[in-house]
């Protein structure tokens, strides 16, 4: 009986213990491209691939994710004319491209 009582007490003590708690945050360092001050209806192309419009329907700049590395960025107007082109190395931040 004494062993049973000791066993139940030990079981009760162990069951009241909690696991160690830890917390980790995942930081998203995916490179991004954002075009600023471009004409309305402009389009963004990266490495010859059309990514889409520079602005959303509310005329806010759209942020596009890209893979790290060197990219050829091209902005075209609504007629398809190139209004800006440059080669950029993008690693782990947001790259803002301003059209003047």
Write up this protein.
- The chain is mainly β and 100 residues long.
- The protein has a single domain (29-98), classed as Immunoglobulins (Immunoglobulin-like, Sandwich).
- Helices cover 14% and strands 39% of the residues.
- The strands form two sheets. Strands 3-2-5-6 form a four-stranded antiparallel sheet, with no helix packed on it. Strands 4-1-7 form a three-stranded mixed sheet, with no helix packed on it.
- The chain starts with a helix and ends with a strand.
Summarize the SSE layout with pairings.
Blueprint: H1 2-15, E1 32-36, E2 43-46, E3 49-53, E4 63-65, E5 69-76, E6 82-90, E7 94-98
Parallel strand pairs: 1-7
Antiparallel strand pairs: 1-4, 2-3, 2-5, 5-6
The residue ranges in which pLDDT falls below 50 over 5 or more consecutive positions are none
Order of helices and strands: HEEEEEEE
CATH topology-level name: Immunoglobulin-like
Number of H/I helices = 1
* Helix/strand class: mainly beta
Instruction: Let me know the average pLDDT.
Output: 87
The end-to-end distance, rounded to whole angstroms, is 88 Å
Please compute the radius of gyration using only Cα atoms. Answer: 28 Å
Strand content: 35-45%
Number of domains: 1
* CATH-defined superfamily: Immunoglobulins
Just give the CATH class: Mainly Beta
Rough shape?
Answer: rod-shaped
The tally of beta strands, per DSSP, is: 7
């Amino acid at each position: 009986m004494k062993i049973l009582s000791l066993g139940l007490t030990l079981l009760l003590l162990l069951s009241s213990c909690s696991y160690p708690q830890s917390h980790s945050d995942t930081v998203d360092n995916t490179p991004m491209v954002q075009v600023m001050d471009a004409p309305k209806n402009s389009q963004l192309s990266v490495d010859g691939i059309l990514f889409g419009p520079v602005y959303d329907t509310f005329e806010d700049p759209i942020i596009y994710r890209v893979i790290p590395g060197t990219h050829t960025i091209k902005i075209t107007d609504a007629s398809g004319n190139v209004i800006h082109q440059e080669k950029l190395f993008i690693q782990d931040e947001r790259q803002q491209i301003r059209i003047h």
